[in-house]
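in:
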C-alpha cells in the first residue's frame, strides 16, 4: 500500500497550525504583530506545501503520529528566521563600553530625540534663516567648541575615519612621525600604521617601544614631514623603564618646524575621572589647552554618545578637512548627528549624570551589592542553582582606562544539574540573550551594566532552564 496517503491525510489545516502557534511563548511578539495578517497564513501555507512535497517524494521520515511534531518543528524554524538579526541583549558582563554589544548606550531623552528625527523631516542641511542650503556640521560645531575650548570642530563616521581624513588631508604623499610605543592596534582591525598607509602617508617610526624622547622626533623632521602624530595607547600600558613625550613638547616642536601636530585621543573624555578615583588621563579640554593643531576621538566611548569621529582644533585646519572629497564619503548620518547633539546638550546643561555610561562607571558599590542580593534571592526561589554574592571587578572597556579595575559585587550561580558551559549557551540563545562573565566554576551577573527590568528578565529566563 502507498505509505504516502495517510501521511498526506494527517497534515493539519492552516488554522490548526495557527492555533498551536498562538500558545507558544516564543512567538507571542511576532503573532501580536502578524497573527491576523496574510503574511502568517502565507508562511504556514509554504511550510505545509514543503511538507507535502517531502511526503510525495518519499523524503519524509516522520510517522503518521509524529506529523504534528514535524510540522511544528518546520514552523518554528521558519518563524525564527523572521526575527530581526539585530536584537536587544542583556549585558551582565560588567564591561561598560562593550564593543561587541554596541559600546555606549544612549540616554533615554536622547533616544526620544533620535526617534523623532528618524520619522520626520528636518533642517539637516538647511539654513532656516535664509532658506538656503546649510551645513550638517553646524548642529554640533558650536556645542563642541563651547564644551572643549577648541576654535572649530567637525564630525565624521567614527574615529578611524577621523584619523584617515586628517592623514589624507595633511600628509598625502608625505611622512608622518609616530613613536614606536604608540603604534596602536584597536580590536576590529584599526592599526595606526595601516590607517596611515590607507590615508596615503608614509610612517616614520621613532624611539623604541618603551622609550621615546623629543630629540627622536626632532631628528626625523625634514621637508617631507606632513604631521607629527601622537596616539593614545588606549588598550595597553607600557610599564617599567619608560619614557614618552607630552603633547606640549610635541606642540613646541611642531611650532619650531611649522608642522601640524595631531593627537588621536581614542576615548576622549569631557569628564576628569581622577575625581572618581580613576588614573589621570587627559580630558579633551586639557588636550586643547596643550595647543594641538587637531585632536580626534570617538563618540561612543567615554563621551557616551553614538558611533562618531569627532575632530576639533584650529579653524584653518578644520576648514581644509571639510574641503577634502573624502569628507563626503565619511560623513556622519542624520540619526547619528541627532544622537550626538542630544548627548552634547546633556553635557552643556551639566547633566552628565543622565548619560548611562557615566552612571554605570560611578554606580555606588552598595547599590550594586543590593541589586546582586536581589537577583540572588530571586534565583534562589527557583531551587535549581547554587547562588552566592561576592566581590569582583568590572571593566570600563572600549579602550579606556585599560588597567583600571572597578570594584563591584556580582551574583554568581552554578546549576545544580548540567554544567556552566551549557547554562552559558542557554542564556545566550534563549529568548533575550544574556551575556555574562565566567569565572572558575561560576557564571557571574554584574549589576553594574544591568538596566531597568533586566533582573526580572534574567530570572524569568533562568526559570526556563532544565524544565
Ligand atoms: C577606539 C580607538 C580608535 C577607533 O575609534 P572608532 O571610533 O572605533 O573608529 C582609534 N584610535 C584609538 C586610540 C582608539 O582608542
Amino acid at each position: 500500500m502507498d505509505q504516502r496517503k495517510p501521511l498526506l491525510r494527517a497534515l493539519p489545516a492552516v488554522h490548526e497550525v495557527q492555533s498551536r502557534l498562538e500558545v507558544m511563548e516564543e512567538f507571542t511578539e511576532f503573532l501580536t504583530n502578524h497573527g491576523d495578517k496574510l503574511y502568517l497564513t502565507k508562511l504556514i501555507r509554504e511550510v505545509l506545501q514543503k511538507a507535502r512535497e517531502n511526503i510525495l517524494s518519499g523524503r519524509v521520515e516522520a510517522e503518521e503520529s509524529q506529523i504534528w511534531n514535524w510540522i511544528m518543528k518546520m514552523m518554528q524554524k521558519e518563524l525564527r528566521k523572521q526575527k530581526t538579526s539585530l536584537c536587544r541583549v542583556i549585558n551582565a558582563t560588567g564591561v561598560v563600553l562593550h564593543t561587541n554589544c554596541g559600546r555606549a548606550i544612549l540616554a533615554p531623552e536622547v533616544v526620544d530625540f533620535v526617534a523623532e528625527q528618524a520619522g520626520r523631516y528636518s533642517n539637516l542641511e538647511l539654513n532656516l534663516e535664509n532658506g538656503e542650503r546649510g551645513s550638517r556640521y553646524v548642529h554640533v560645531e558650536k556645542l563642541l567648541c563651547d564644551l572643549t575650548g577648541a576654535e572649530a570642530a567637525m564630525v565624521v563616521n567614527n574615529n578611524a575615519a577621523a584619523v584617515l581624513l586628517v592623514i589624507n588631508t595633511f600628509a598625502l604623499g608625505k611622512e608622518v612621525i609616530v613613536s614606536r610605543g604608540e603604534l596602536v592596534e584597536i580590536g576590529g582591525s584599526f592599526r595606526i600604521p595601516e590607517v596611515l598607509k590607507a590615508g596615503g602617508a608614509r610612517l616614520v617610526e621613532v624611539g623604541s617601544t618603551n622609550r621615546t624622547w623629543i630629540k627622536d622626533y626632532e631628528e626625523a623632521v625634514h621637508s617631507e614631514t606632513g604631521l607629527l602624530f601622537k596616539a593614545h595607547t588606549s588598550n595597553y600600558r607600557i610599564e617599567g623603564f619608560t619614557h614618552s613625550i607630552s603633547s606640549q613638547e610635541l606642540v613646541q616642536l611642531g611650532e619650531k618646524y611649522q608642522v601640524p601636530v595631531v593627537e588621536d585621543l581614542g576615548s576622549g573624555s569631557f569628564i576628569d575621572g581622577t575625581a572618581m578615583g580613576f588614573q589621570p588621563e587627559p580630558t579633551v579640554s586639557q588636550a586643547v589647552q596643550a595647543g594641538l593643531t587637531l585632536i580626534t576621538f570617538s563618540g561612543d566611548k567615554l563621551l557616551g554618545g553614538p558611533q562618531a569621529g569627532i575632530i576639533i582644533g584650529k579653524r584653518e585646519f578644520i576648514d581644509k578637512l571639510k574641503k577634502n572629497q573624502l569628507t563626503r564619503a565619511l560623513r556622519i548620518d542624520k540619526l547619528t548627528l541627532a544622537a550626538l547633539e542630544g548627548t552634547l546638550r546633556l553635557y552643556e546643561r551639566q547633566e552628565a549624570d543622565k548619560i548611562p555610561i557615566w552612571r554605570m562607571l560611578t554606580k555606588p558599590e552598595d547599590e550594586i551589592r543590593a541589586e546582586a542580593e536581589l537577583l540572588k534571592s530571586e534565583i534562589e526561589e527557583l531551587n535549581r542553582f547554587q547562588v552566592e554574592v561576592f566581590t569582583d571587578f568590572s571593566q570600563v572597556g572600549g579602550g579606556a582606562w585599560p588597567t583600571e579595575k572597578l570594584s563591584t559585587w556580582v551574583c554568581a550561580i552554578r546549576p545544580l544539574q548540567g554544567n556552566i558551559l551549557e547554562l552559558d549557551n542557554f542564556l545566550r540563545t534563549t529568548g533575550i540573550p544574556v551575556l555574562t562573565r565566567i569565572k572558575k566554576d561560576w557564571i557571574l551577573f554584574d549589576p553594574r551594566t544591568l538596566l531597568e527590568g533586566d533582573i526580572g528578565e534574567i530570572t524569568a529566563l533562568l526559570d526556563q532552564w532544565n524544565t
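note: The two ends are 42 Å apart (CA to CA).
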